[in-house]
Amino acid sequence: MLPSIKSELELSDTQLGFLTGFAFSAFYALVAVPVARIADRFNRRTIMAIMLATWSIFTVACGLAQTFLQMALARFGVGSGEAGIVPTSLSIISDYYPAHQRGTATAVFTAAIPIGVLVGFPMAGWLNDIIGWRWTFIVVGLPGVFLALSIRLLLIEPPRGHADKLAVDNPPPPLRDVAKYLWHCKSYRNLVLGGAATGFGYASVIQWTPSFLVRSFGMDTSEVGNWLALSIGLVGGTSTILSGWLADLLGKKDPRWYAWMPCAAMIALIPLGSLVYLTQTKIYALIFLALPMALYPIYLGPLSAMVQGLASVRMRATAAAISILTANLLGLALGPLIVGIISDMLSPKLGPEALRYAILSVVVFGAVWGSIHWFAGSRTLREDLAANKP
Fold this sequence. Notes:
Layout: H1 2-9, H2 13-39, H3 44-64, H4 68-82, H5 85-96, H6 102-110, H7 112-141, H8 143-154, H9 175-183, H10 186-217, H11 221-251, H12 257-272, H13 275-278, H14 282-288, H15 290-295, H16 300-310, H17 316-332, H18 334-350, H19 354-378, H20 381-387
């Protein structure tokens, strides 16, 4: 919907990058840690229900925005609401599934991202053409309020430490102790930074590729939504689940595979991800898009599983939140914003094609940056996991 929003609200690419990146991710990151601290202490399903209702209401508010400032405030609210769902969910999942199954379990959970695209992109493109971007926000936002109620009533809250066969009744350690413990864990530090670098490129591709296809190839939003649903949704969803399962399979023999797999994906992404933005032919760009969409999500399941494995039971939600804080501030917040800035800088010379090279530069930089941290994290992973073994 970005082209329609850009036109009606008269926004620059930098402003669009702010709305899709920083406005959402900064508040997402800042709220995640305090909500996770609550989740490590109190009922997690209640927190999830409140967060879901909050971001759904603010999604509706996006459709009511009349100015850039109003849209930014609504995006702040969406990010604040979504902040609590991932750390809280991962904490619950780690109590449902033992360590050797968490890669698959968390991959199925994080596959909600590409599966959401599979449904959301064609729906948003179709609704945008028929009823406009404002009503599209309203239509997709309202169901979340009812889903929040179903989570509160139907989700079962497992005992903490259940999957690890631990009886946990002690309170969570102070935040300072958690942060100190995680910072001194070299694997955690490098894997989280690797995830941030990967998200730097992944978020930029997801947020800006629709506009790139519209500007460079003259596609309409419905056509873009259908194609991206296949590449991001179907290919990305399949890759997410399979990579989590494969990481569990290989990780039984050597847990370093949880870091080696994302590292290999980032190295492969440098040439393969660039093909999308170097070709001048629409059909090739659409076909090549499946390559980065298969490679980017590989890190989702392994990273989530290792964050839970490297943290003790009473700090798992907080460990996930700190990971999210880092990923959002360094990756998701900056990636789309930097693409917008570079695009505006290149526009006087390149016109609509400026966006093509802005995305390309962020994809390559993020892949190189990420591969360094994934490899560094693999070097100490076995020792750090053994030190935290229940």
